[in-house]
Amino acid sequence: MSRKVGLLAIWVLMALGGAAHADTDRLIANAMRYDMEYPGIGYSGPAHDNRIWRFQQKLNSGEIKLQWEPHFGYLRSVLKALEIDPSSQIMVFSKTSLQTSVINEQTPRAIYYNDDTYVGFVLNTDLMEFASVDAKLGIVFFGMINRQDTSPVLERDGGRCLTCHDTYSMMGGGVPRVMIMSAPVDDSADTRTFGSASEVDDRTPIAERWGGWYLSGWYQPGRGAPPVTHFGNLPLRTETPGHQGDRLRELIPGRDNLGSVSAYFDTSLYLTDKSDVVALLVSEHQTFVQNLITRVLYKVSTIMSQGGSGPAPRSWTDIEPRRQAALKQVTEPLLRALFFADAVPLSGQVITSSGFTERFAQRGPRDSEGRSLRDLKLEKRLFRYPLSYMVYTDSFNALPSFVREYLDMRIVEVLQGRDQTGISAKLAADDRAAISQILADTLPRFASPLGLKTARR
Asked: The whole model's pTM is what?
């Protein structure tokens, strides 16, 4: 790590209070622990299979030149180079970053993302935060000094981020992960104890989500349904509640239906005045699946290393039944997540005006009838076709070939109604037919097992 990034990171740790007492060697040991627990992964080694590393190579060669602008620095230029649209902006003001000392209700952290990479922008600091999914390592973290007098260099984090981004770091057996949390808020509906922030994914009831987040958009309840409530746009609970929470609550009484979050803070300091509810919903599903892919990658490495290091199996049928059973146990949760099997339904319709919905859907691919796994429904459920677009990602397709073979086989079983675990029963016949044709046209390896033809293009 460069001296400039390293010094700033140490300053950030000092601002955290308790973390200031943890020395650098112990923090870096978080990454090294993965090397001991998962020697086949090599987490602390080079991370060359991710968007950030490829971006840095283009910076080094001069293929990409970043443009500086007042206040935002390199942010807008970085997002463009990483193919991240500003409409993905979601705003969080809970203390869930290394830079907690400069994040509050008036200066929230902005997060921008695409399918594999996340960028964090924090006011009043020179450090831009990055997380990217490496196809071979899982999530990896980087930092960049966002200052005009410093050449833009993205340096990989040595282990500090893993003090939070591995919830099992004190016990072992964890994996690096992206986390979306809901912090306790100053509201009688939130019965959680002080400090007990909970992790959120698409299985979490809407009423328990988004504490510490700003939210723009409309969540309209269905006919005859009660109003939709959540913890978004509410002040955080503190040990000594102050007047700020009361002011925010009085200022925005209709906090569930806002076209902008500009009434809460000065949004001119950010790229947009939105913190899009759809972008947040999609990110919750995406990070949930990404974390499960990483967990499968790591646990499969452990399972296959037990009992000797013979040649890697070429197919699922090459694996003995004992190991097949262990592999199924770690892989089935990923399959359920891909099919939204345990996702809570939307109790109404979600409407936004940020442009995220349209831009997200445009990124395809599409079948011969113009349908895509990225098409959003936003009424009763998040996606029009309930199979995750994450099947197209590099991380999913970088799983060991025998694991992908098993997952492909199970996906086909679900779509043909032969699944015995209840996933098929959750899908309507027309949805299974539509998903089957989308897969046959966009991932031709599914065409023959599904008994379909791939459309000529």
From this structure: 0.89
